[in-house]
Amino acid sequence: MILQLLKQATRARHAALESRLTLLDPGLSREDYRLCIGGFFGYYAPLEAHVLDSPGLREIGLTYSERRKTPRLIDDLKALGATPDFLARAPLCRELPDVASSARLFGCLYVIEGATLGGQVITRHLHTHLGLTPACGASFFSGYGAQTGSRWKAFGALLNAYAEQSGQVQIGR
Predict the structure, then answer these.
(1) Model confidence over 47-71: pLDDT tens digits?
(2) Is residue 171's pLDDT more than 80?
(3) At CA 94, angle to CA 92 and CA 100, rounded to 5?
(4) How far, in Å, CA of 148 to CA of 143, rounded?
(5) What are the backbone angles phi and psi of residue 84, rounded to the nearest 5°?
(6) Which of 14-28, 30-44, 132-146, 148-162 is the least confident region?
(7) How far apart are CA 73 and CA 37, in angstroms?
(8) What is the mean pLDDT of residues 9-36?
(9) Nearest 10 degrees: CA dihedral of 59, 61, 102, 92?
(10) Are 99 and 50 a contacting pair, CB within 8 Å?
């Protein structure tokens, strides 16, 4: 139930973001892709540190360290020629979502895990148009590989249980 409510509530924002990304453009170049991945790194690196520091993480019962995206982004950037200096100087996002409560943390994780699920389409496109594979340049979007669907379902079950247990379904607040 909560997953459907979240999907409906975030549909417009999802569509707006998707329309701004050029990852599925047929003319996507390796350099464009590297720059895009660099932007994702600049967001995910501080975001994941923020999530791992959240007091609600233990409460919700999710082992996020197994789901981290930053190591995959680093691998992809290195495969695309990024140097350690590039990674060290990459601009990092300072405006991060509020994850102080379990509900807000779940909202953030819903976006992260949903993006992981959606990355499967991008992975196929990167392979077809740029020759990239999860082993070389496209591990971020490949998510958890064959386990992506089952991990999404496990996350959804955890979120549903939390929503039922808390009795508070407040979306968009």
Answers:
(1) 999 999 998 888 888 889 889 999 9
(2) no
(3) 125
(4) 6
(5) -55, -35
(6) 14-28
(7) 7
(8) 84
(9) 110
(10) yes
DSSP string, the chain: -HHHHHHHHHHHHHHHHHHH--TT-TT--HHHHHHHHHHHHHHHHHHHHHHHH-THHHHHT--GGGG--HHHHHHHHHHTT--HHHHHH----------SSHHHHHHHHHHHHHHHHHHHHHHHHHHHHH--BTTBB-HHHHTTGGGHHHHHHHHHHHHHHHHHHH-------
CA separation for the pair 99, 64 (Å, rounded)? 14
CB 38 within 8 A of CB 80: no
Tokens read off for 149: 């669907």
Q: With left for phi above 0 and alpha for psi between -120 and 50, is residue 133 left, alpha or beta?
A: beta
Residue type, 104: R
Q: In sequence order, which residues have a C-beta less than 8 Å from that of residue 2 and are 6 or more positions away?
A: 159, 160, 163, 169
